[in-house]
């Protein structure tokens, strides 16, 4: 675009703060996106965001203030909530719950010692009770009781509540979570406590369980309520600090935060919905991938995001992201539906080490952005995946981040020699190849795991790779997982940030409406009440539209959760548009049976046991930016972008000469064969030996990974 001071120019900016880099993308009408990366600043993450904005301003040859003044819309994905929860840096919180149930949060459905441990579950010596976010002496039982039909059995003791509030305030508590039994059926007691807190302690942050998690399951509901209060003030301060810093640079536009459930929310709403931000960043990448999949006609996609710290994998099935109803975060289960993303510690900054048995391991510990991999030259002295990529010739140290951040190969070699090569009796190159293979196999295993566990064959999927390191390793982990096709989007290096700015505004509301069919019913649908279901869905739809300002563009989707009688876990099913009739319910029950057997095996669905309908949910979405992106430049003749060649060590065939291309120079129609390296300003794309690459009409890099099959 060149220099611009035209006040008519409007920028739409998306950001995502990762553990190593802060990503930023700038959209404007009829032009391709511009992509930027700046090191994350852990001491104050807003500083890294402003540094990325400064890079964007410089690319347009304007001042930071001029650039920010032209931003019409700013959207943000962040790990602030996740970090605060895992590091236990939330607000001192107390839980008020029904008397006699004060241990619910501590028992955790008997999963206390292993929830969140993944593969470590089998190592009994490594099981541990998690540090509670609310200690036992801050969990208070309140005299009150509602029964399972929503009837009051014991009146709320308001005098007792006032006394508890005064004691907790004196003990340094600053946030309150209120979670009473069956409050989602009758919220009268929780609402009364909320009123009392407003009178007695107006400065306290309060979460009522029926407002954030109106679902069956007292542990999950209580955990969600507590986490929301624990994180609420932290997120409020984080968002206020970032917004204040943005406003001071001249930004006057709209500000949104990525919601883990499927879109963005107003920044002003983030503090009230803090628990919804726990996978804020990764959700953006999955949503951007879902939009791309619909454009390319890929119904089943595995999304793979490899950054500096972690490797995040999501699933898109039948063109829609896979959503989990109860999510596992840290060592808790939360009753908040969110886009399902499974992560392992396998990023570019993952540290390689030799364990006590003399076995090479990679991760989960990461060097992060400070000090970072050894090759960064910032004081890190332990070898990482990025160091291995430099030693193997995959990453050119002089062209990292487009040459803005040169790397030091000698430091990478030294770290690998000291910590891996010498202990294992290998050459530095062999050790680096081993590091890369271990990391790639970990990632391939995760691709297989997330598909097989959901009842799918990974070979029926296409892999989308993004993140700073994803395109560098995707050729290997895609092939190792037995998957034929890999797609690297043109926004790959900042794809999650791209997802934050292109995602719809999103709101979801739900309620519990229990209906059961009797065991042995020939036609279970005949025993459900369509009129009641329609009335509830209509009410939820009105609430959802109101939360989205009654925008006429709102698109609603309706979801019903079904399970067999006496079971604990439900399956979500999309309710078709229009009136819900007995025939519609009959079709939903048949769909439920098919989904159940796909997950658990043929013949496992026993409709004769009876079906239960517990939860009804409505989700609303409305577009935000409404811009049209312009096409990409580049030549269809790959040789015009050829820089030269260099020796690259591939674990599968040793050191070979690989052609090196300037990635931005490749346009639609270009094709080439591996081994090849494509260097972009923010990432390096590898095409393995025997593989082939073609650039599609939308500038996606499509790699056929069957070369070595």
TrEMBL record:
InterPro entries assigned to the protein according to its UniProt record, in alphabetical order: ACX-like_C, Hydant_A_N, Hydantoinase_A, Oxoprolinase-like
Lineage start: Bacteria, Bacillati, Actinomycetota, Actinomycetes, Streptosporangiales
Hydantoinase/oxoprolinase N-terminal domain boundaries: 13-200
PANTHER family assigned to the protein according to its UniProt record, in alphabetical order: 5-OXOPROLINASE RELATED, HYPOTHETICAL 5-OXOPROLINASE (EUROFUNG)-RELATED
Domain Hydantoinase A/oxoprolinase: 221-504
Ranges for domain Acetophenone carboxylase-like C-terminal: 552-698
Name listed for the protein in its UniProt record: Hydantoinase/oxoprolinase family protein
